[in-house]
Amino acid sequence: MSRLKHTDEEESKATMKGVRFVTDAEGRKVAVMLDLAEWGELWEDIYDNLIANQRADEPSMPLEEFEAELRAEGLLNE
After folding, report:
1. What is the number of domains present in the chain?
2. Any domain includes 36
3. Domain around 51
4. Cβ partners under 8 Å of residue 10, min gap 6
5. How far apart are CA 30 and CA 35, in angstroms?
6. How far is residue 28's CA from residue 41's CA, in Å, rounded to a whole number?
7. What percentage of the chain reaches a pLDDT higher than 70?
């Protein structure tokens, strides 16, 4: 298992504020750290897409049918 590290030299190579790469012992980038104050909205979009891709093969139903089920269970008024 390779050891992960982050060095000041790598930080100085970064071209984007709030983005830091984690490298393995051979210097290969294996992860990224994002400053959420700087990139939080972008991360939320990325995360939402990851979840959507993960659920792509799950069964679905038309919105109207889902709303009807919620109304029948008393969970949706309208």
Report:
1. 1
2. yes
3. 8-72
4. 20, 21, 23
5. 17
6. 27
7. 82
Q: For residue 65, tell me if it sits in a domain.
A: yes
- Among left, alpha and beta (phi > 0; psi -120 to 50; other), residue 21 is beta
Q: The tokens of 24 are what? A: 């393995």
Do the beta carbons of residue 32 and residue 15 sit within 8 Å? no
State residue 65's pLDDT score. 97
How far from chain centre, in Å, is Cα 27?
24
Residue 3 resides in a domain: no
Q: What is the pTM of this model?
A: 0.55
Q: In this structure, what token pair is assigned to residue 37?
A: 């104050």
**What's the token pair of residue 29?**
């980038």
Domain membership of residue 40 (yes or no) is: yes
For the range 29-34, what are the long-range contacts, defined as Cβ-Cβ under 8 Å and sequence gap of 24 or more? Answer: 30/2, 30/4, 31/4, 33/6
d(CA 61, CA 67): 10
